[in-house]
Each structure stands twice: as C-alpha cells, then as structure tokens.
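Ticket #925: bound-state structure for FE2/S2 (inorganic) cluster.
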Amino acid sequence: MNKRKVTFTVNGERHELVVEPNELLLNVLREKLGLTGTKYACGKGQCGACTVLVNGESFLSCLTLAVAVDGAEIRTIEGVAEPDGTLDPIQEAFLDSSAIQCGFCTPGMVLMGRELLNRNPRATEEEIREQIKGNLCRCTGYFSIVRAIKSCCEK
Amino acid sequence: MKKDPKDQLSNYEYQFIGKPVPRHDAWDKVFGRTKYADDFDMPGMLFGKVLRSSYPAAKILSIDTSGAEKMPGVAAVLTAKDVPNNETVTRFGQTHQVGGFEGLYRVLADKKVRFMGEAVALVAAETEEIAEEALARIKVEYEQLPGVFDPLEAMNPDAYQVGEGDSNIICNYQVRKGDVKEGFSRSHVVVENTYRVPFVEHAFLEPESGIAWIDDSEIITIRVSTQVIEHFRDVADVLGIPHNKVRVIAPMVGGGFGSKEDITVETFLALLTWKTGKPVKMTWTREGSIISSSKRHPYVMKYKTGATRDGKLMAMEAQLISDAGAHVYLSPWVLLYSTVDATGPYDIPNVKVDSYTVLTNNTFTSANRGFGAPQVCFAYESQMDELARRLSLSPLEIRKRNYLRKGDALATGRVLEYGVETEKTAIKALEALGEPSMPSSPTEKIGQGLASGMMSYGRMTFLHDTSRSYVGIELDGSVTVRCGVQDIGGGQASSLASIAAEILGVPMEEIKVFIGDTALTPIAGTTTATRMLYMSGNATLKAATEVKKSLLPKAAEMLEASPEDLVFRDKKVFVRGAPARAIPLADVVKACAADGVQLYNVAQFNAPFRELIDFKTGQGQVFPDFTFGSHAVEVAVDTETGKVRVLKLVACYDVGQAINPLSAEGQIEGGALYGLGYALTEEVILDKGITLTPSFSEYLVPTSVDAPHVKTIMLESRDGAGPFGAKGIGEPSCNSIAPAVANAVANAIGARILDLPLTPEKILRSLQKL
Ligand code: FES
Ligand code: FES
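RESOLUTION: The complex was predicted; output attached.
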C-alpha cells in the first residue's frame, strides 16, 4: 500500500507524518505521538473511550483514518488544560464532582463535555445525557459525570 | 475483638476522614497522564497474541505451527508442550491451604478444548499484523465432541464429561438449621418459585493488557492490569522458577469488577518473554475479552419460603445450581457466598440449603462484583414480596418482622457482632422514594419496589487473610505509604492517604502512596472481596499510629508537655488547647532522626482466623462482617411495548464510616447502575457454547440515557470492622437493585417475572401479549 504524508496539529503542535492509508488516528496518536490519554476500549465505535476533537467536533479516533484528518486541528485530553497546567473548568468540575473513578472513560467524557459547552453553554441535563450517550462508563453510573458537566453550564 | 472507634481518636472531629475531597489519583486522570497497562512501551518489544479454540468442545488431534514459525518477524510460537508446568492449581493470593477450593489452572489447552475462546497457542512477533497473520497460519486439527451446555443436564451421571474427571459436579454445600418440614407445616402461606439469572460480562472499559520483560538481574517483570499482583507465584510455578524471580507491577486499573482477579495475560506474557528474551506486550480486543474472560455465574434457584399469618418467616428451603462453565476457577468460593447469603438478612428458624456448581462447555465463570450475592438476593427478595402479597402485608412490613439485628445469628450460626441497620436503610429508602408518579400515557403502569440485601466484606475467614502496609515520615514531614494494593478505580490507594493524613496530621497532597509492586511494596493481598479498605486500611492505620507513637516522646520533650496532650495537625505538633505552643512536624522528625528514632513502621493486619466450616451443615463463621442496605425504585412499564423505564432509584446503605464520602457515594451510584444493567438489559447469550454477544452492540451496558435519577443515602453506624468503624461498600452496592426493579415491575403489572434480565419480551409474555 502507498504510504501518504499528512499534516495536522495536535494540541497546537504541528506534525508532519507518513502514514499507511489504513492507519487509524487512534494508533497514530498513541503509538507515533505518544499521546496515550486517548484510549482503546472497543475499536468499533461502541464506547467513546477514543474520543478526540477534530476542528472542535468530537470524533471516534478508532474509526477515523489518519489520512482523513489531513490539515485538521486535533485536540486530545492532553491538550485540554492550558500549557502551563491550569485546568480547564470542565476538568475542575470533574475533580470537584468526583466524576472520576477508574478514569478510563474520563478523557472521552471530558472532551464530550468540552464540545457540548463550546456549542451550548446552557445545556440542560437531558442534553448532557444525550451528548454522552455514546460514551460508556462502567464505574460511576454517569450521575457524577452529568453533575460535573452541568456545573459548568450557565444557569 | 470489637473496636470502639472512640479508642482510635478522641472524638469524631476528624480532619480528613469523612471529608469530601477529590481523590489523590484524580488529577493525573483528568490530565490524561495516568499510564494504564497498555500505555507503557519498552524498546524492542514484541507483540503477543493468543490463538483461541474454534469449538466449545473438541479433541485436539494435532497442531502444526511450522507455517507460523517460518514467517519473518515471528519470534515465538508456543503450544502446551512448550509450557514447563502447563497445569497448576489456582490459588488467588491465598497463602493458607484449604482443601476443596483449588481448581485446575491450565495455561494452554492440551488434547481437549473445553470452551470456545480457550487459549490453544501463543505467538510473539515484531508487529501486531505479523502476529495476527501467524495465528492464521497455525493449523489445529480438531475432532468435535458433543459437549454439554446446560448445568442441570451436566449433573446427570451419564452426561458428557467436560473435564477429565468422572463428574461435572465441582462441589456441593449444605446448610441445615432446625427442621424445614416442621417449619412449613406451621406456615400459613408457602411460596415456591424457580428463578433464573444469566451470564454477565464485567465490561470494564480497559481490556486485559500487560507488558513483560526480563530485567538486568534476570527477573521476569510483568506490568499488568490486575486485581491480584500475588499471581506472581502462579506465574513462577508455571515457569518452574523460584517465586522471587517474578515481579508483578499493577498500574492503575481501568476497571476490574472481579474479572481481573483471575490470571489474564500475565502467564502468556511471562512465557513469551522467557522464550524470546525480549519485552512482549499483549492487549486483548474487546471481542477477545468477551469470549474468553470470566463471566458472572448463571444460577437456577428453587426457593420455597413459608411464613405465618402475621408474616413471620418459618422456613426456607433453597436449591442453588450454578453454571461454572468450562473451568473451576473461583466457582466453589462464589457458590459458598451464595449458600451463606441464601437466607438474606432475615431471621429464619428452619433452613435447608443445597447448592451445586457444575462444569459445562460454556465460557468459564468466576468473580463478578457481588460474588454470588446478587443472584440469591434476586431470589430471596422476590420471595419476600410474593409472601407479602399473599398475606396482604406491605413489602416493608413483612421485612421489618423478619430482619436480622445485631447480636442475632445467621442460619450458619454466625452471630452478627457489628452494626446491622437493614431496617433503617429500608425505611429511609422508601421515604425518599416518595409517592408514585402519574403515568405519562394510558398504556403506562407505574410500580414501586423495595429490596434489602446483605453482602460480606473481607475474605472468607478460613483463608486467614492478611495485609501489610508501610508508613514512613520523611525529614521534611512528608509521608510515604507503601502498600501492595491494586487500585481498580474505587479509590483504594487514596483512602490509605486519607488514613495516614488523619493520624499524622499531614495534608493529603503531602502523602505519597506507592502501590501494587511485588518487589517494592509490602504484600497487601487482593483487591477483591471488598476487602481493601478493611484490610489495608487497618494495616495503614496501625502503621501510621506506630509512627506517630515513635515521634511523641521527642515532641513532648520539645514542647515541654505531656505526650497525651499533643495534637498532630497541619504539619505541626501543638499542645491541645494552646495552639500557639506549636512546632513544625519536620523539626520533630529531624530531631528524632538525629536521635536514631525509627521513622517508619510496617504493620500487618490479620482478619479473624477461623476453621473451615462444615460443608454438610454450613455451621461456622465464613465472613468477618457484612454490609447491609436497601434499594427502592419506581418504574414505568409500557404495557404495549414491554419497555421498563426506571423513574426513581434510591440506594441506602450503612457504610459504617465513609472515609471519603465522595468515593463511597461514587461506589453506591456506580453499583446501582451496575445492578440496573443486571436487572434490565445485560445478558451474555451463549448458543451451544458460542457467544452471540461479543461486542457492546449486542451486550447492552446501561448508557447515560438509561440512568435514572439516583438518590444516595449513607448511614454511618461507625460499627464496622474496618478502620474508624468503616464497612466495605464496593460490591454490596450492586446487590439488591435487580430484585427491587423486579418487585417494582411486579407491582406495576401484577405479574411476577422469575428470570433476569426483565426484557420487554418477557414482560409482554407475562402480560399474555406474546
Ligand atoms: S475505542 Fe473507539 S469507540 Fe470504543
Ligand atoms: S470511571 Fe471507570 S469507566 Fe468511567
């Protein structure tokens, strides 16, 4: 298969990479860029653990080819806080609401929350639940995650 | 001996215990920095893969690995003949040898396969693609065998034999108390039903994963997602090397729920790295995980329960049959839990329980959150509601007349010596549930349901469980805890930080907890059986208290006060009532160091050690203590579609003392949804041993839109066996949801469904609409 060159930014940093045409974004992030915050949990688009933001929109990186995001701006969990380590309000909220247990779903949940807040800072509980319904969490029962996102919404 | 929490601290004004604070592990997790098993690489590592059997029951006639071995990039291909000790026994970090509790652990199938998904061969190769291709080139010739897939059938003496023995029945326990015949004859009503519960998948998000390498002193090191680092012994036994030549490290685990209690990838990794001399990594796919890892045991439960006219239970007879699947693993233990818990939190004068666990050619079953308790809870709590209905008593009233209380004995003779607040949990749960809602459509029916349950925390007392913890104070006053716990997301490590912080008066941020490494942390036992807080919490409490004791004389001298008057707080030591008379803790530590005072302590905590119980009568002590609680739910059942919506859910538990209320609440909320999946949607469907639900699109875990409002009520009796009077909550929290939902559905539609999950199809059938 013919390798292809792709260019994109991840968390503000520009990357030029040579990838296989069938290479998944998930594997490029984890293996080539060492960004292991993005998780593999099903590989079939059924759990949301691999969620990243591509041009601000949530994507399942286990179903996204690296060549398909050529030219895009990608944000992973590692790029949610400020470069100086200041937490994003959504991260603060996850800490305060104790919305983290094993933490394996957390990267996907935080990014889904971030996407929703960017689009709809006044989201209702129902809209929040709808937003994260493709993201499985086996530990928390979702209650604390919903509370965390809700606490970031304007009243 | 029963502890008075007041002995440990002068009053309940704790600084850290019982305070809602974010867990210390949460920061790394929210930054995406936590390195789980698969997030860790080694230079030059190979990728390991497993060839799994294509049939649930077959003879292996031959295996030809030559095609795979020849492939460039393939470093090793292993079959049973390459494993030094392919067959050992499973022991699960158990150091006390007890007969009847050991199952065969066979690393790779040899001669015969017992279930679809059983490991037959291993490959290590330079890339995952090559490893995958190599698996395809291994030729296994099978002769299919009939197999047996129903545990009741498998019990027949002439049934197909799953293993090599002469019976599929692994074991049988009995509980005998009083005379059930007599009890039933004195009963006004007798309810008899047969309940069935399904196979359940743990569905943790992080699939089984690990990496192994040989370090520069020839130690096989395995960094693995596990609940039991003590499998290092089993790995060493398989390789035939001394136990101290294997090191297991457990990073943060992305969910376990019991399935990572069994060996998963660690032996495979050890074998491949041992054979190739190179680091090897292995992560299972979700499908690989679902078809080959353990499941919750399905049970068939025949219950007969009798009560007097005024609702006093007179007799209970139960027959429990569990499907162990293809290998023994923890089935005898799980069965014993079910057997002891079979009566529920009720005082019953006449009891007869007979239980069996049976091999079949289904996927093997082992530990799953609740460990045999939720199965029987579904049955005994459904029975209670049926009795109430027949006697025209309210579900709460009949329970109130029968709840066990502190000081009462279980059917096994064991006297409950710690807090038993079941009645209070039921009353509070029902109160919080409130009045029934109005149906939102003419076809909808509303129902409310209550269920109570009991489940142990701490391992079975005849296993003689122990834990150890190291607490040391550094010259700057910061604190180091070393404890071999596995943190599977329940805050296991963080609670130790809270305990050390409380005793030594050092802020949580200045406590570092090192966990899960057989080479560096004292062995603390398994993160299973809801034992970690109880066991390692107590060990840490003991060690921290000793460290404090060793600092006291010097501090007293420096402050010119008597040791009893000193308070450790905010990294200072001061005189009670005179906070101005204070010195920095670091100064005390430095002065102690100069005097050669020991600045650390390694403490061991032993659970009560008891003899093995009598398996013919069930008499004796099996558990250190139990956690009691109740769930109340309200459902709306659509009588046209059969769909159940849970409108309200209240969970009320006596947690003894919440070490961190946010963590305890998180367990109760998470446990509620875990149990709700059991009630409504979750079922691993096997058709003659073939898994029909190998992904999350067939196996339905509850999502955010299925989760109702949950209200958590925590009672704190401060009367548990754990540190500060805590009880364990991790597993008990999912216990009584399913029967509460079943009782609510029965209340809504006027018909009882005896099988989980309560699918729309079953509901419509019970309404005679199918
Ligand atoms: S790993 Fe991508 S959706 Fe599950
Ligand atoms: S916190 Fe474990 S899966 Fe969500």
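RESOLUTION NOTES: Chain A touches chain B through 52 residues (CB under 8 Å).
TICKET STATUS: resolved
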